[in-house]
Amino acid sequence: MLQVSALSHPARMLAIYGGMTGLVYVETDGFRRDAPFMFVLPVLALALLTMTLRMTAKIKYLTASSFITIAIGLYLFALRRRELHYMCAIVSVSHILYLLSFMACIRRLWRALATAMVLYLLAVIYYCFADLFRSIPFMVTALSLHLGVICASVVAAGSVWQYGSKRTDAQQAALFRFIGLLVCLGCSTMVIVDQFGRRYYNSNYALSIAYYVAQGLLFFANERAF
């Protein structure tokens, strides 16, 4: 009975999130039609589900706030796609909030991953913005900081997965978090490269799927860890 009860709660939340994501897929014709509010509904559902979890108030509010913030950023981006830097600034706040929710778990820094992320960040910035800083310095700075925040989050999550957590012994949760943030980094990189580097056509479907998978992984990571 205890095992069934333990499994039913996450399964129910997964069903709710998956069902809402499926509804968005149907209502937007396979993520092809713009529907800003519909698009962020599953993430808002994650924020509400977070508030039902049994975790400390600080972690609960940080996690829920991160989902609400990213929903706001993506909603505004869907309305004004040319103002990418504003969306990235808001989404960066979301990642900072989520980082704060698990940062105390870091036992030791994964230096190899940190080095790889620094090199990755410099490569993307150079590829996309090498000739643009003088013409659009504010946008370049905002987008670079956005990628930097996500890279820092990836390093933190990877360090918890690689060396274990100070607070919990949830290796699977740490892996979920690490993969989720890597997917977030890939999504943000793809959006920025699409605007300033190589053009990706018909990428909305792949980005939407990756985005929903990433947010689900981040939710279940904290749900299992705390």
TrEMBL record:
<feature type="transmembrane region" description="Helical">
    <location>
        <begin position="112"/>
        <end position="130"/>
    </location>
</feature>
<feature type="transmembrane region" description="Helical">
    <location>
        <begin position="84"/>
        <end position="105"/>
    </location>
</feature>
<feature type="transmembrane region" description="Helical">
    <location>
        <begin position="173"/>
        <end position="193"/>
    </location>
</feature>
<dbReference type="GO" id="GO:0047408">
    <property type="term" value="F:alkenylglycerophosphocholine hydrolase activity"/>
</dbReference>
<dbReference type="Pfam" id="PF07947">
    <property type="entry name" value="YhhN"/>
</dbReference>
<dbReference type="InterPro" id="IPR012506">
    <property type="entry name" value="TMEM86B-like"/>
</dbReference>
<protein>
    <recommendedName>
        <fullName>lysoplasmalogenase</fullName>
        <ecNumber>3.3.2.2</ecNumber>
    </recommendedName>
</protein>
<feature type="transmembrane region" description="Helical">
    <location>
        <begin position="61"/>
        <end position="78"/>
    </location>
</feature>
<feature type="transmembrane region" description="Helical">
    <location>
        <begin position="35"/>
        <end position="54"/>
    </location>
</feature>
<keyword id="KW-1133">Transmembrane helix</keyword>
<dbReference type="GO" id="GO:0016020">
    <property type="term" value="C:membrane"/>
</dbReference>
<keyword id="KW-0812">Transmembrane</keyword>
<feature type="transmembrane region" description="Helical">
    <location>
        <begin position="205"/>
        <end position="221"/>
    </location>
</feature>
<comment type="similarity">
    <text>Belongs to the TMEM86 family.</text>
</comment>
<feature type="transmembrane region" description="Helical">
    <location>
        <begin position="136"/>
        <end position="161"/>
    </location>
</feature>
<keyword id="KW-0472">Membrane</keyword>
